[in-house]
Design a protein that fits this description.
This protein is an alpha+beta fold. Among the domains are: 116 residues, Pdz3 Domain; 193 residues, 2-enoyl-CoA Hydratase, Chain A, domain 1, CATH 3.90.226. The protein is built from 19 helices and 26 strands. Helix 4 runs antiparallel to helix 5, helix 13 runs parallel beside helix 14 and helix 14 runs parallel beside helix 16. The relative contact order is 0.15.
């Protein structure tokens, strides 16, 4: 049966009856959660370029935070297969410093794009004024294998997913639902996989490699109004050209007009800049848990606003605890247990309890094989990643993490020295040595100076000065007993994901690969292009608030090397620590290519249905050995 695709063409029309509103482009969109991208853009472009703000953001803050960035010198010539992410960071900043911009938006978007295109999800510039919007396309795509051939399709379950965005969204567009499952012939005139690659290179920016399906359907910002597709509807043979509109979703702070937009969303607020923790009344040492290091990416397309829904969470009945980020279930046949670990960003006790109850439930059910599903896991607490590795591999392996270090730039050295002089400890700072341990497992004392002597390495012809290396001290945070031996033979443990596995998730899967040699499989993604299973693998990330607080707490805000307070609301986050690979201790794991042993395309049946994609994975070597 042939049914034409008619969809998506009717757009909301904005009333200009109110002449005050039409002269203030921000008043036009005030109070709305969904709007046309062009209307949002008119508001954002109404703020003129301001040299004072450029110097504050670029020269006085961001370029000084880059001094702490572990990968700065690597970017001069990124090793294969990551060579595309090569850029001279200082030269790029200097160019942005001298470019003429018409508006504040143009400056910030140029800077945003430059940092995003470094493809390190730990290192991002988020100017809230311009990143509190997400553009939503009512036509998410996926790569599926149909009759043995992989192609790009509009998601088959469009009809179920799009209404989840609410009527404020669907009222702005007319959707003809038979576009669901349509085969995509081209996007913006390009072969669809080529266009997806272009988006991964220029828009998504979280991963050094990019065979993944990135942000086509939900990019940050309001840069584009529509995409033109050539489609063949399901059950048809006719190619139709359709222009699919984006609708912008605003998730910032309320405003009524241009002035209040700027005041509420663009200017620095009480939470923008760091604090001196010595003066903080919130530090009560009896109750305060230790400050915990984070390794994560901020993917505004999923973590903020109204992300396009995904259905990666299993629908099977779960076993063990399921209140947190872990959902566990037993596959039909009762041989294999699956732990879906959606994130490492969870309450410490909850995560550890849920791990124990999942493993206990699997053992009670007589399960002998274990699959860890890490699809769409953007990371979280470094110590929860190490905990899961330790729990699965047993206490007998000893230290469950990587060797780590920070850059020993002159200001970092001063921070450590000053923290020691002030008698600070890990309640105040991530720089004090008691956060870390010597290689023999002994926790360092807060008074140890691990910057002296420093460790000099030459990266791409530049001398890079690092601290001494150290271990994490995650076992101080374990609240459950760790079995001495692995609860499941590690030969019978496998990891699966869709390649979206960043930071702490990347570190966990890299440890499971490098040390435990578990099998890893990646589902989906672009065919004939490698996908690293470990997504973006940095280590601890510091938000702008965190590094600024380190400096203020060490009484060094007046140092000539210290970054200034931001005048605008925003976050410049950076990868602050390196994790060094077990395979080659001279290489950060971020630059060691580690491919999954198995790749599988999604099919119509398995797409977005983890139990099915695990259960139906067929007679290949991975499935035979795991299921
Ligand atoms: C829809 O938008 C209106 C304002 O335009 C708002 O009051 C209402 O809460 C929104 N509805 C939902 C479900 O977000
Ligand atoms: C530029 O921004 C600074 C800091 O917010 C402000 O004081 C100044 O008035 C602005 N300049 C112009 C010309 O608006
Ligand atoms: C930008 O230009 C100003 C003025 O020439 C200069 O003081 C500053 O150091 C430059 N900043 C960067 C990051 O190049
Ligand atoms: C395509 O045809 C199949 C079998 O006739 C039918 O089940 C399915 O609903 C059709 N799909 C669409 C989008 O019309
Ligand atoms: C923003 O608007 C919502 C709903 O219109 C309201 O509940 C909330 O209090 C407002 N927030 C501020 C900061 O004005
Ligand atoms: C964790 O498990 C312990 C012991 O079973 C229980 O007392 C505690 O309430 C649990 N905590 C959470 C957050 O699940
Ligand atoms: C950290 O320092 C505070 C303030 O001096 C002190 O109360 C606390 O006990 C110290 N923490 C540790 C673990 O020594
Ligand atoms: C561990 O190593 C440190 C630094 O070399 C040393 O001071 C400490 O005594 C060692 N601890 C043990 C238990 O050997
Ligand atoms: C943590 O692990 C190290 C070895 O990696 C060990 O020396 C130390 O005693 C452990 N600490 C705790 C509190 O378990």
């Amino acid at each position: 049966m042939f049914r034409p695709i008619l969809f998506l063409l009717a757009l909301a029309s904005v009333s200009f009856a109110d002449s005050d509103k039409s002269s203030d482009p921000c008043a036009v969109i005030a109070g709305k959660s969904f709007m046309l991208p062009s209307d949002a853009l008119a508001c954002l472009k109404s703020f003129p370029f301001n040299e004072t703000l450029r110097q504050n953001v670029l020269t006085d803050t961001i370029s000084r935070v880059f001094d702490f960035y572990t990968f700065e010198d690597y970017y001069l010539d990124s090793p294969p297969p990551f060579q595309e992410s090569t850029v001279n960071i200082r030269a790029a900043l200097a160019a942005i410093n001298t470019t003429k911009y018409a508006t504040d938006y143009d400056f910030n978007v140029d800077l945003y794009n430059f940092v995003t295109r470094m493809n390190d999800g730990h290192t991002r510039w988020f100017p809230d004024c311009y990143t509190n919007f997400q553009n939503l396309l009512p036509a998410p795509i996926v790569s599926l294998e149909v009759d043995g051939i992989q192609s790009v399709y509009i998601i088959p379950d469009l009809v179920e997913l799009i209404p989840l965005l609410g009527t404020n969204y669907t009222d702005l567009i007319k959707i003809c639902w038979n576009s669901a499952g349509a085969k995509v012939i081209s996007i913006e005139g390009q072969e669809p996989y080529t266009y997806v690659d272009f988006i991964a290179k220029t828009v998504s920016g979280n991963y050094l490699d990019h065979g993944r399906f990135g942000d086509l359907a939900g990019p940050t910002g309001v840069a584009q109004d529509s995409l033109t597709f050539e489609l063949i509807a399901a059950n048809s043979t006719k190619i139709e050209t359709v222009t699919v509109p984006y609708i912008a979703n605003f998730f910032g702070t309320n405003f009524t007009d241009r002035e209040s937009y700027w005041a509420n969303n663009c200017l620095a607020n009480a939470d923008t800049n760091g604090v001196d923790f010595k003066l903080s009344t919130e530090l009560t040492f009896d109750t305060l848990p230790r400050k915990q290091p984070m390794g994560n990416i901020i993917d505004k397309s999923t973590s903020n606003g109204v992300g396009l829904p995904t259905q990666f969470e299993p629908t099977f009945p779960t076993v063990g605890g399921d209140q947190g980020v872990i959902k566990s279930y037993v596959l039909p046949g009762k041989k294999t247990g699956v732990m879906f670990v959606g994130s490492f960003d969870d309450d410490f006790t909850q995560f550890q309890n849920d791990t124990v109850s999942a493993i206990t439930a699997f053992q009670k059910a007589g399960v002998t094989r274990l699959i860890i599903d890490l699809s769409n896991n953007g990371g979280g607490f470094i110590c929860l990643g190490q905990f899961l590795h330790q729990y699965l591999a047993g206490a007998r392996i000893g230290y469950p993490g990587f060797q780590s270090s920070v850059r020993a730039n002159p200001l970092a050295r001063k921070i450590v020295a000053s923290d020691i002089e002030l008698g600070l400890n890990d309640s105040f700072s991530f720089y004090t040595a008691d956060n870390y341990a010597f290689f023999n497992g002994t926790q360092m004392s807060a008074a140890d100076d691990y910057m002296t002597p420093d460790v000099t390495v030459v990266i791409n012809g530049r001398t890079d000065v690092n601290s001494q290396r150290f271990h994490d001290t995650c076992n101080l945070t374990y609240v459950v007993p760790i079995p001495n031996n692995p609860p499941f033979d590690l030969q019978n443990v496998a990891i699966v994901s869709n390649g979206n596995c960043a930071s702490t998730c990347a570190m966990f899967s890299t440890l499971m690969n490098e040390r435990e040699h578990v099998k890893i499989a990646v589902w989906g993604g672009k065919p004939f292009e490698n996908v690293e299973f470990k997504g973006m693998a940095g280590n601890q990330v510091l938000e702008w608030f965190d590094i600024d607080s380190e400096i203020k707490t060490a009484n060094l805000k007046d140092d000539p090397l210290a970054p200034a307070d931001l005048l605008v609301s925003g976050d410049f986050r950076h990868n602050w620590r390196t994790a060094w690979s077990y395979f080659d201790e001279n290489e950060p794991i971020a630059y060691v290519s580690e491919l999954p042993r198995f790749r599988f395309p999604y099919t119509l049946e398995t797409y977005n249905n983890p139990p099915k994609f695990v259960a139906l994975c067929g007679g290949n070597a991975f499935c035979i050995s795991v299921l």
